[in-house]
Amino acid sequence: MPEPLELWDVWSPVAGLPVAFEPPSAGFALDWRTVARIRSYGAEFATLTHTAGISSTGDIVLDLKLPFDEPYRIPKSTACAVESTRARGSRIIAIGTTVVRALEHAASQDGRLHAGDGLATQRIGPESRLRVVDVILTGVHEPGTSHHQLLRAFADDTTLRRAERELDAMSYRTHEFGDSVLIERKPRTSQVTPD
Questions:
Q1: What DSSP state is assigned to residue 181?
Q2: What is the mean pLDDT of residues 153-173?
Q3: Domain locations in the chain?
Q4: Are 103 and 134 in contact (CB under 8 A)?
Q5: Count of other CB atoms within 10 angstroms of residue 76
Q6: Listing from the earlier edge strand, what are the strands of the sheet with 93-95?
Q7: Beta strands in the chain (DSSP E)
Q8: Model pLDDT for residues 54-112, shown as the tens digit of each residue
Q9: Stated pTM of the model
């Protein structure tokens, strides 16, 4: 950045207290006008509180330990909204990688989203079975980062490489103050069990 930023410069427009030094950057894609427009199409919004995680420190050895554990709090109203949405067969869209980790961790025991405080300790990647989230709105993440690894749970490597080439060709910016992408989870494969 060419000059120092004020605290409100790194606070996403739709965020609530508490303020974090590492902002939940996916939230920069939304403002209240955009939220209202999306709601006008019938979408519902639910909130949770989480610690925004970093995807890279710049130190290769330390980056192998990422993502760090991330505390979260899911209100009962959010858990009910998510479960109701899933019961209707509608999609759950997470705004950011940390929200994916929180939702998936809170549903890891039995596949149902549970309200309350938790600590997301899992790594999500290509082998992960997503139980809650169908779509992610996130920043553009560089290959090799823990956040990019999480995207591999949504799309295969060929698709992500193709998207990366397109993003590079169009000079999209990465991560914190970069551009955003919307990635829908690869279709679930139905399991056929013999009679």
A1: E
A2: 91
A3: 25-184
A4: no
A5: 10
A6: 93-95, 135-139, 180-184
A7: 49-50, 70-74, 93-95, 116-120, 135-139, 180-184
A8: 777 778 888 888 888 889 999 999 999 999 999 999 999 999 899 999 999 999 999 99
A9: 0.85
